[in-house]
Amino acid sequence: MTEIADALPKSGPPATEIADWIRSQIRANRFVPGQRLVEVDIIRRTGGSRFKVREAFQRLAAEGLLEIEEFRGASVREASLAEVSQLYRARAALEGICAADFTRLASDEDKERLREIAEKMETCVESGAAEQFGKLNGEWHSMIMRVTRNDVIADLVSRLNTPVHHLLFESFYRGDRMNEATRDHRAILDAILAGDPEAAEKAMRRHVENGLQFLTSLDRALFGD
Amino acid sequence: MTEIADALPKSGPPATEIADWIRSQIRANRFVPGQRLVEVDIIRRTGGSRFKVREAFQRLAAEGLLEIEEFRGASVREASLAEVSQLYRARAALEGICAADFTRLASDEDKERLREIAEKMETCVESGAAEQFGKLNGEWHSMIMRVTRNDVIADLVSRLNTPVHHLLFESFYRGDRMNEATRDHRAILDAILAGDPEAAEKAMRRHVENGLQFLTSLDRALFGD
DNA sequence: GGTCACCAAATTGTCAACAATATGGTTAGC
DNA sequence: GCTAACCATATTGTTGACAATTTGGTGACC
């Protein structure tokens, strides 16, 4: 009843918050693939109880983000190139259909906003602001999905993307990749503005598949062949 | 070292097995949407410890199959028609791309096997064996995805389907729906045999969307409008 | 010097007891 | 008869202690 009692009714953050925190750490490349997540460490840093931390681990394991081994605990799952390739194939299908839906459903303001983001990205290319470019790119893609009001697909794509965030983070938007992405975006935008859903879908698919191809070449460059 | 020691080294089934069991119960329509899953009950029926049961709950909640409320435990999540509609949209995109891939990649034996299943389904239509029809239908769809070696997409589609299994179970394959599905399958198969990936994709999409339309009409019939 | 068995520390798995909350029925009051 | 407060029961949330296993290092032996 007192202020104090109201101030500390909870002993710690719920499992979902802990899971969100771990997810954000992975996205920010603080937890890298293969890294072991020690329970005590997470407890110290989140303030959650051991029980809740383990609940969070389970959730993230079900999402495919963590791997749990008997008596060895949780570690950030490493996606093989083969798996990443499959993830991108799924993304191409899902984002493609969203691009088509966007073309049909979006209002003029929506389209204008999309064009604005694309414009900002082009200025990033000129100034070489790779990080900002990546951020805007995320906005661009998620806007297309948000407008079509398909939360399920938006959620799926977001989950599909997480395992490769550590790759996108550092070395993805370097060199020609920004130029290529900009070209792709322009093609998509043109199809949308022309009101051609099928063309928009095809362009979006090609865009995602180009991303995969770039990732593949990057992988070869990093790990040899 | 003795036979006895080998016979009972484990105190109970692991969390993944419990999760699988619950999933199968939901798929078999034994656990229906909205039903509460009491921990003690699951413990009694699976032989797992309370701890493991709760781990299983967390995993299934992350999959979207269960809903966990504070102090009220887990219950089978109820998918709204709006959500089901979105799930089908995603399925249409994913299975569509798989159909196209199948057309490109499948061996002659694969295609022959697909044709055989379709043939069996047609005999089911004649004899009105709805349950068998549904089972074969599952095989048909999963075969298309398995051949393309895209486990990620196969897994996604399987998860997308689970929330509506209770609908498919009872009243889905009645009346004209089997005929319609058979027509769709024939169109898909024709495109595949003709080696036309784009046509196969379109036909598959139409098939999934027909399924959604049927579900929608069924929903209207059941719950009024 | 190298290899293997063994030991101690760290880490995770499991369980049982207790606290907190929801649920359903009962009773008092109108 | 009806509503609302109340209470017993059922159910879930939380914690702590202990068991099982891995891990990294140490020393004996070849």
Named at the architecture level, the CATH assignment of the largest domain in chain A is: Up-down Bundle
Strand order of the largest sheet of chain A: 1-3-2
Q: State the helix count of chain A.
A: 11
Uncertain segments of chain A: 1-10
Which CATH class of the largest domain in chain A applies here?
Mainly Alpha
* pLDDT averaged residue by residue of chain A: 86
Number of strands of chain A: 3
**Amount of beta strand of chain A:** under 5%
Oligomer state equals homodimer
Within the CATH hierarchy, at the fold level, what is the topology of the largest domain in chain A? Answer: Four Helix Bundle (Hemerythrin (Met), subunit A)
What does this structure look like?
The structure is a homodimer of 225-residue chains. The longest helix of chain A is centred in the C-terminal third of the chain and has 27 residues, at 197-223. Chain A contains eleven helices and three strands. In chain A, helix 2 crosses helix 4 (50-63). The model of chain A is unreliable at 1-10 (pLDDT under 50). In chain A, a hairpin with a 3-residue loop joins strand 2 and strand 3. The first copy, chain A, starts with a helix and ends with a helix. Helices cover 74% and strands 4% of the residues of chain A. A three-stranded antiparallel β-sheet of chain A has the order 1-3-2. With 225 residues, chain A is mainly alpha-helical. The first copy, chain A, is globular and about 55 Å long. Chain A folds into two domains: 3-76, Winged helix-like DNA-binding domain superfamily/Winged helix DNA-binding domain (Arc Repressor Mutant, subunit A, Orthogonal Bundle), CATH 1.10.10.10; 81-223, Up-down Bundle (Four Helix Bundle (Hemerythrin (Met), subunit A)), CATH 1.20.120.530. Chain A has helices at 3-7, 15-27, 39-46, 50-63, 81-105, 108-127, 130-147, 151-161, 165-172, 176-193, 197-223, and strands at residues 36-37, 66-69, 73-76. The A-B interface holds A 15, 54-55, 58-63, 83, 86-87, 89-90, 92-94, 96-97, 150-153, 156, 160 and B 15, 54-55, 58-63, 83, 86-87, 89-90, 92-94, 96-97, 101, 150-153, 156, 160. Chain A binds a DNA duplex (30 and 30 nucleotides) through helix 4.
